């Protein structure tokens, strides 16, 4: 287990270039299984989830050359083999489930391990995925530790309408439909920036997708997909995180941002905490004027609030980042996670800093910010962005804090500590129990 020692109190300032978005990189890596042509990916981040997928590709006989220094990954699934009774897929990461379509399309069989749950955010169902696989013709067999899926190829095109806009279910639908026989449609598709990036990559491989970025996708199956040379775009999660780190420490951070058109709601959310975000010439910067202060709503007797839900709402993965600002900013804010039922239970860790955060119910938390904070030893749940939020609070308090079990950060953010060190952050990893 890795812990982070944070020496807080230094305003973070400077320019920083974000990495690629884990939630775009992983489905794109899984998509490469659908083609027998070589694929080159550029800007691949050095994160543990990427390493796990690459390891499984190598075990299955695919050729992978990966250099994290240049960020270039060459993958060629030419001599790939798979036996669902022998081969296992990576666990403790949600993206594992997106290896299923490639395996089904190539080998007519795939597995889902029971532990494809990823961050401990609450219920993370596999049923919407299984329904998609069944729609494409899969027969499902229950094992003690997972599922085996068998299917005749090519997969059968279909029209499907999901219960809710699920990110990885949408990606799995597109992966299955790309090589299916006929035209498939998905209603209630997810449209997060990483889903859009994934669809762009699929189109580059030769998939025929209409409706990118909307809630209805139409995919016309093709016989084969080709190769590609693709460069990842900047991760909007990292952009928001770096800007928020600048704001919470009273610094001045500028982040490269090639897609400011994705930011209007995020900018307004920052403004609720008294933080102005300025986008200029491909860069975004945070501007703070004195201590953070919550913007009072005009409506009397209601709380300021941040509602997180599937895109185009504020993404649930960014909610903890705004909670950290809520702890710091003077005033009260209600945070509402409309997606997960177990993502808000870390108020007790915030209290160790002296923060006042109240868990109203499994989906809602209220911060009463601006209380005096002091350094503390806190423990992160297995949730990437909560580890970061705790780090943010610690970075804003003069003195030494410890974030125990901060390892999940390494699942999504390459060399995070070194990276923000360039902005003046003073932190180090230590190994322990
Ligand atoms: C690898 C990857 O891309 N992971 C992301 C992906 O996970 P993932 O694709 O697993 O998330 P889903 O969009 O499927 O939602 C996860 C869970 O939330 C619940 N749910 C979701 C939406 C909804 O309207 N109602 C509802 O109940 C369900 O229990 C569901 O199982 O999207 C999540 C939501 O943006 C992010 O937190 C994860 O970082
Ligand atoms: C929750 C996340 O990832 P996963 O779905 O892989 O757990 C995340 O990226 O914040």
TrEMBL record:
<dbReference type="Pfam" id="PF00275">
    <property type="entry name" value="EPSP_synthase"/>
</dbReference>
<dbReference type="GO" id="GO:0009252">
    <property type="term" value="P:peptidoglycan biosynthetic process"/>
</dbReference>
<dbReference type="GO" id="GO:0005737">
    <property type="term" value="C:cytoplasm"/>
</dbReference>
<feature type="domain" description="Enolpyruvate transferase">
    <location>
        <begin position="7"/>
        <end position="419"/>
    </location>
</feature>
<comment type="pathway">
    <text>Cell wall biogenesis; peptidoglycan biosynthesis.</text>
</comment>
<keyword id="KW-0131">Cell cycle</keyword>
<dbReference type="GO" id="GO:0051301">
    <property type="term" value="P:cell division"/>
</dbReference>
<keyword id="KW-0132">Cell division</keyword>
<keyword id="KW-0961">Cell wall biogenesis/degradation</keyword>
<dbReference type="GO" id="GO:0008760">
    <property type="term" value="F:UDP-N-acetylglucosamine 1-carboxyvinyltransferase activity"/>
</dbReference>
<dbReference type="GO" id="GO:0008360">
    <property type="term" value="P:regulation of cell shape"/>
</dbReference>
<keyword id="KW-0808">Transferase</keyword>
<keyword id="KW-0963">Cytoplasm</keyword>
<protein>
    <recommendedName>
        <fullName>UDP-N-acetylglucosamine 1-carboxyvinyltransferase</fullName>
        <ecNumber>2.5.1.7</ecNumber>
    </recommendedName>
</protein>
<dbReference type="InterPro" id="IPR001986">
    <property type="entry name" value="Enolpyruvate_Tfrase_dom"/>
</dbReference>
<dbReference type="InterPro" id="IPR050068">
    <property type="entry name" value="MurA_subfamily"/>
</dbReference>
<comment type="similarity">
    <text>Belongs to the EPSP synthase family. MurA subfamily.</text>
</comment>
<dbReference type="InterPro" id="IPR013792">
    <property type="entry name" value="RNA3'P_cycl/enolpyr_Trfase_a/b"/>
</dbReference>
<keyword id="KW-0573">Peptidoglycan synthesis</keyword>
<keyword id="KW-0133">Cell shape</keyword>
<dbReference type="GO" id="GO:0071555">
    <property type="term" value="P:cell wall organization"/>
</dbReference>
<dbReference type="InterPro" id="IPR036968">
    <property type="entry name" value="Enolpyruvate_Tfrase_sf"/>
</dbReference>
């Amino acid at each position: 287990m890795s812990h982070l020692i944070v020496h807080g109190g230094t305003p973070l300032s400077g320019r920083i270039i974000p990495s690629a978005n884990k939630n775009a990189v992983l489905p794109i890596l899984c998509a490469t299984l659908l083609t027998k042509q070589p694929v080159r990916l550029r800007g691949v981040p050095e994160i543990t989830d990427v390493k796990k997928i690459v390891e499984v590709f190598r075990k299955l006989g695919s050729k992978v050359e990966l250099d994290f220094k240049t960020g270039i990954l060459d993958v060629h699934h030419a001599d790939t083999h798979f036996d669902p009774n022998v081969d296992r897929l990576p666990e403790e990461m949600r993206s594992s489930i997106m290896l299923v379509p490639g395996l089904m399309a190539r080998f007519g069989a795939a597995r889902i391990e029971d532990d494809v749950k990823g961050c401990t955010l609450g219920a993370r169902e596999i049923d919407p995925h299984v329904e998609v696989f069944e729609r494409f013709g899969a027969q499902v067999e229950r094992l003690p530790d997972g599922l085996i899926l068998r299917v005749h190829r090519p997969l059968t095109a279909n029209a499907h309408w999901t219960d809710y806009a699920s990110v990885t279910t949408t990606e799995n639908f597109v992966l299955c439909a790309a090589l299916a026989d006929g035209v498939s449609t998905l209603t209630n598709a997810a449209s997060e920036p990483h889903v859009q990036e994934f669809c762009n990559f699929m189109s580059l491989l030769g998939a025929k997708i209409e409706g990118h970025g909307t809630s209805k996708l139409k995919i016309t199956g093709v016989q084969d997909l080709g190769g590609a040379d693709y460069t990842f775009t900047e991760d909007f999660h990292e952009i928001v995180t770096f800007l928020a780190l600048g704001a919470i420490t009273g610094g001045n951070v500028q982040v490269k941002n090639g897609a400011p058109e994705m930011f209007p709601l995020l900018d307004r959310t920052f403004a609720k905490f008294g933080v102005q975000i300025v986008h200029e010439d491909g860069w975004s910067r945070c501007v703070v004027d004195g201590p953070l202060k919550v913007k009072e709503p005009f409506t009397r007797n209601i709380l300021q609030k941040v509602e997180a839900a599937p895109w185009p709402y504020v993404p649930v993965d960014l909610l903890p980042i705004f909670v950290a600002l809520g702890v710091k900013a003077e005033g009260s804010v209600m945070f509402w996670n409309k997606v997960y039922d177990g993502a808000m239970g870390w108020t007790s860790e915030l209290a160790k800093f002296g923060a006042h955060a109240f868990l109203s119910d499994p989906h809602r938390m209220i911060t009463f910010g601006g209380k005096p904070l002091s350094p503390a030893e806190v423990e992160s749940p297995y949730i990437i962005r909560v580890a970061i939020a705790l780090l943010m609070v610690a970075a804003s308090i003069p003195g030494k804090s410890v974030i125990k079990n901060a390892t999940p950060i390494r699942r999504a953010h390459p060399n995070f500590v070194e990276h923000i060190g360039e902005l003046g952050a003073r932190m180090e990893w230590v190994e322990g129990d």
